[in-house]
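We modelled the chain as a single entity of 90 amino acids. Its sequence is:
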Amino acid sequence: FPSHDTEEPKKWKVILLNDDHTPMDFVIGVLTEIFRHTQETAKDITMKIHTEGSGIAGVYSYEIAEVKSVETVNLARSNGFPLQIKMEEE
């Protein structure tokens, strides 16, 4: 059999982008609730987003990355925040 049939499915990075309106507490909440980070890790990632413009929330299969992205954006919108997310192949 050709070896490419047995390759691992690609993983996708879920990246949160910085903006001037989404509160850091909300981002920390998203990272702990949706992406299952500890408070500490969530704070670290949030600071990275704040200082560098983006941060990786997690790496998942495409389906899971998509579900978490949609969930995050919906939650942000329902709270009136413009939080943006992008997905990139690892």
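As a brief sanity check on the tokenised model: The chain is about 45% helix and 25% strand. Residues 16 and 85 are 5 Å apart (CA to CA).
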